[in-house]
Amino acid sequence: MTTAAGQDQQIQTAVREQRGRLLRFIERRVPDPDEAEDILQDVFAELVESYRLLKPVEQAAAWLFRVARNRIIDRYRRVPAQRTVSLDAPLGASDGDEPTRLLQDVLPAPDDSPENRLLRETIMDALSDALAELPAEQRQVFVWHELEDKSFNDMVAETGVPLKTLISRKHYAVKHLRKRLQKLYDELFTD
After folding, report:
1. Gap between the Cα atoms of 172 and 169, Å rounded
2. Could you tell me if 141 and 173 are in contact, meaning their C-beta atoms sit under 8 angstroms apart?
3. Is residue 106 helix, strand or coil?
4. What's this model's pTM, rounded to 2 decimal places?
5. Mean pLDDT split into 10-residue runs, the chain, 191 residues
């Protein structure tokens, strides 16, 4: 078993070796320097707590960065989403009079805040991976409607594909994406 003095030495070494890199990692994701420093201190406090609970950290650098990433994600979870719907909701369901669309409900406003940029990048990366799994026809209808804001009537006029077929393709695309992105949605928008 490691002595308290040995634990203190391991903690001090980890803090000394990783502080600069870890702070830069956090600052790239959290624009407020005070908040970045708070997150850094929380991460180090968790390191100390882990040692005090006799759970020494084997790979300190990897552990510290994982905890920092989790703290940053927690911070973004606290940022209220503008308007969200459950991914289990039926296609087109909403609280108001207008039908909702998947992306406008989960993406933050397209402003230049670093928080929103990081959140949008995270969602768009996951969406891109999930879209790549779709058949080409479903993917195209989804991209046109959700990303390019093209109406179904415009798609019918351009492609000659019947409206019901386009709607069906979008439905299957959304169904796949909801299932595929549920975990990310839960991480970002539920407590």
Report:
1. 5
2. yes
3. helix
4. 0.43
5. 70 86 84 86 85 70 82 67 39 37 51 65 79 90 82 92 92 88 73 47
